[in-house]
């Protein structure tokens, strides 16, 4: 029997990215949906199913022709049971996603963490290709991570390896500002920038957003960052400070595991681009120990918003394909 295509799903708090990946690893059908988490599990599942049907139609196949489905979901996952234990963005607790989606699609479903599958995608096809050992760090609303060790995803004893965003960065600070993602995520960068503006620091960004600071997204920040069209000192200072802290945290992991490559992804990284990645790499290389580790490459994701789609589909190919 010839190999079958697999569907990959990147389930985010705002958007759902869906794709059908052929056996030769081509994206042959795509669909996008808004998550609308406020409509709860049933509403989100309905949009996932409709998106898979659309992507399969674009690929010229029925859903029944799929070999299986992989989905990357935000938060903590029970990898054996395919249960989303806790997804803050979705306001989900203990959702048996593999079972629910599998019954609707009449397909086998593999569930993993969203950043982990994106890192897997980059390791197979993107900026981490051919690297047997790497760390992936995704910057967006929060910060997530994933580890490839000895050529495969590393989960650790409790299945949560790679959660760099929740590592303690500033141990002497109070709860709420101690962790890496509380200082270096897009949300943290915007919060700090807004606090400085409100305390009478000047920024060109106010000419665009006024006092509606919810309008400050990753692309907004990029317009005022280094080499942006409206370079602004305050924006540059805040982002560079986050890059420095991020680089120090990454350097600790590089030092501990002797990693040769780090892939940065997520919406904030994609918006700020290579100049931001260079700032992070500079700090990583300054901080990593010993000197051999200072040769680590810090690179930007090349698959961008398809990394999770590819990664989820390929992980399902690898895992479900072996369990037939």
What does this structure look like?
- The chain is α/β, with parallel strands linked by helices.
- The chain folds into two domains: 6-119 and 306-321, ATPase, nucleotide binding domain (Nucleotidyltransferase, domain 5, 2-Layer Sandwich); 130-302, ATPase, nucleotide binding domain (Nucleotidyltransferase, domain 5).
- The protein has eleven helices and 13 strands.
- The chain has helices at 40-59, 97-105, 114-125, 181-184, 186-198, 205-209, 218-224, 233-257, 267-272, 274-287, 307-321, and strands at 6-11, 15-21, 27-34, 69-73, 76-78, 83-87, 92-95, 109-113, 134-139, 143-149, 152-153, 261-265, 297-300.
- The strands form three sheets. Strands 3-2-1-4-8 form a five-stranded mixed beta sheet, sandwiched between helices. Strands 11-10-9-12-13 form a five-stranded mixed beta sheet, with helices on both faces.
- α5 runs antiparallel to α8 and α8 packs across α10.
- The model has no long low-confidence stretch (mean pLDDT 95).
């Amino acid at each position: 029997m010839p190999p079958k295509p697999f569907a990959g799903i990147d389930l985010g708090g705002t958007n759902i990215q869906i794709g059908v990946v052929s056996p030769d690893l081509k994206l042959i059908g795509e669909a996008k949906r808004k998550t609308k988490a406020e409509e709860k599990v049933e509403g989100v599942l309905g949009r996932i199913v409709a998106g898979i049907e659309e992507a399969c139609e674009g690929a010229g196949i029925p859903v029944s022709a799929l070999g299986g489905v992989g989905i990357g979901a935000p938060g903590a996952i029970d990898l054996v049971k395919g249960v989303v234990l806790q997804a803050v963005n979705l306001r989900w607790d203990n959702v048996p996603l593999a079972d629910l989606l599998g019954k609707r699609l009449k397909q086998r479903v593999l569930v993993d963490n969203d950043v982990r599958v994106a890192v897997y995608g980059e390791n197979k096809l993107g900026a981490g290709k051919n690297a047997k050992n790497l760390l992936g760090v995704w910057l967006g609303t929060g910060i997530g991570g994933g580890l490839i060790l000895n050529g495969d995803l590393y989960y650790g004893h409790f299945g949560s390896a790679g959660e760099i965003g929740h590592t303690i960065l500033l141990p002497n600070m109070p709860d709420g500002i101690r962790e890496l993602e509380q200082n270096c995520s897009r949300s943290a960068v915007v919060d700090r920038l807004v606090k400085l503006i409100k305390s009478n620091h000047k920024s060109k960004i106010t000419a665009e957003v006024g006092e509606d600071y919810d309008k400050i997204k990753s692309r907004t920040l990029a317009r005022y960052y280094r080499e942006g069209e409206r370079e602004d000192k305050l924006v540059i200072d805040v982002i560079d400070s986050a890059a420095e802290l991020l680089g120090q945290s990454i350097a600790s992991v590089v030092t501990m595991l002797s990693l040769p490559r780090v892939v940065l992804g997520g919406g904030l990284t994609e918006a700020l681009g290579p100049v931001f990645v260079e700032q992070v790499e500079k700090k990583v290389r300054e901080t990593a120990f010993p000197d051999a580790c200072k040769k680590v490459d810090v690179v930007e994701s090349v698959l961008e918003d398809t990394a999770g789609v590819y990664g989820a589909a390929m992980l399902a190919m690898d895992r479900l394909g072996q369990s037939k």
